[in-house]
Amino acid sequence: MKARLKELEANAISELESVTDIKSLDPWRVYYLGKNGSLTQILRSLKNLSPDERKSVGAQANKLKLLLQSELQRKKDFLKENELSRAFEKKDLDISLPGRAFPAGRTHPITQSLREICHIFSTMGFGVVEGPEVELDYYNFEALNIPPDHPARDMFDTLWLDSSVDGDSNPMLLRTHTSPMQIRIMENSPPPIRVIVPGKVYRYEASDATHESMFTQVEGLAVGEGITLANLKGTLFEFASRLFGAERKMRFRCDYFPFVEPGVEMSIECLACGGNGCKLCSNSGWLEILGAGMVHPDVLKRVGYDPQIYSGFAFGLGVERIPMLKYGVEDIRLFYENDTRFLKQF
Ligand code: FA5
User: Fold this and answer.
1) Which of 14, 177, 285, 294 has the lowest CB atom count within 10 Å?
2) C-alpha–C-alpha distance, residues 168 and 157, integer Å
3) 38-42, 120-124, 169-173, 331-335: least confident range
């Protein structure tokens, strides 16, 4: 067996010496080192030897395997180098050509919009805080005047989590809006407050051209003495005209959210159709971008603020709707399909 290994080594090395191009290296590798190659067969037959023989022949065979592998690599490098210099001599290789550029990644359009929104509000004096996406029923609903069985729970199709803290008395869920952060912020700091909260929210609903089951919101909250609905309107109009330009039409209409009184929604004239009606705006000429209102006195009381002294406004903005309006994107689902042909336009 040892003599066979010696012979195999001599043959393998001399055959390798005579190989002159990279393509012919593979048959050599398959013949000697492949699954059914000569050396592999010897290694397999070791089990038939006595323990002593197996030990010494096994060591020799393994050493040969390492030697052949390294000789193969050495030859490959040598031939590659040779091919390159030959191509270079024949002028097949133009080293003055510019290198191939790697495609660069870019910021996702939703992140771009989110940054722009946060920047505008921070120049208007709002701080930025973030909150948990896994939330307690208490913050997502109860503290916002939405007790169990309140019909407003239907507005927020909820993804509930199996686990619960406190038995079943405080179930957990994926937050359906960023409004729970209103409570968490007010619980932890005294007025005056002026913050925005960007983040992901989740709803158990079928997606369509303007609705996704996971989307992004920016919550806004301002609480202090003497804050009125006029402050809310002024803030949001200022924000929207900085974002879309002063010439873009905006409108406020009544809406209902249990945690504000009164409640409003704000819509922006559809850019895709110039207000004439299209698929993006469901032929209305308008696209709703946010819900808002004056913080309900019961919500203020619940966090220990005196509603006789303090008042405030809050709003919840749908971030995906912003690039849809700005760039005339007709389907929200495009943002999350990860088609780079779409994403690289932004
Ligand atoms: C809310 O989520 C309230 N929390 C907003 C609020 C905050 C009201 C503070 C009062 C005070 P609404 O469900 O309408 O409200 O969502 C707010 C915005 O999120 C909508 O105007 C819309 O722009 C966006 N939005 C709502 N549902 C979806 C969805 N499924 N996909 C994408 N965007 C959505």
Assistant:
1) 14
2) 19
3) 169-173
- Superfamily of domain 109-343, CATH level 4: Bira Bifunctional Protein; Domain 2 (3.30.930.10)
134: Cα within 13 Å, side-chain hemisphere: 8
Report the amino acid identity of residue 38. Answer: S
DSSP state of 72: H
Q: Is the CB of 326 under 6 A from ligand 1?
A: no
Name the residue among 267, 263, 318 with its Cα closest to residue 295. 263
Structure tokens at 6: 């010696």
In the chain, where the domains are located: 2-89, 109-343
Burial (0-12, 13-18, 19+ Cβ within 10 Å), 246: exposed
Output the CA 225–ligand 1 centroid distance in Å. 27
- Give residue 169's pLDDT: 66
Return the residue whose CA atom lies nearest to atom 9 of ligand 1. 315
User: Which of 288, 298, 311, 313 most suits a substitution to test ligand 1, by most atoms within 8 Å of the C-beta?
Assistant: 288
CB of 211 shorter than 6 A to ligand 1: yes
Burial class (CB in 10 A: 0-12, 13-18, 19+), 302: middle
Region 320-336: mean pLDDT is 91
With beta carbons less than 8 A apart as the criterion, state whether 129 and 174 touch: no
**How many angstroms separate the CA atoms of 251 and 265, rounded?**
8
Residue 234 makes CB contacts below 8 A (sequence gap 6+) with: none
- Provide the whole-model pTM: 0.74
Specify the DSSP element, H or E, that contains 264.
Answer: strand 260-269
pLDDT at residue 164 tops 60: no
Distance CA 53, CA 70 (A): 26
Least confident of 134-143, 214-223, 265-274, 307-316: 265-274
Q: How far apart are CA 179 and CA 40, in angstroms?
A: 67
Are β-strands 260-269 and 250-255 bridged in parallel, bridged antiparallel, or unpaired?
antiparallel
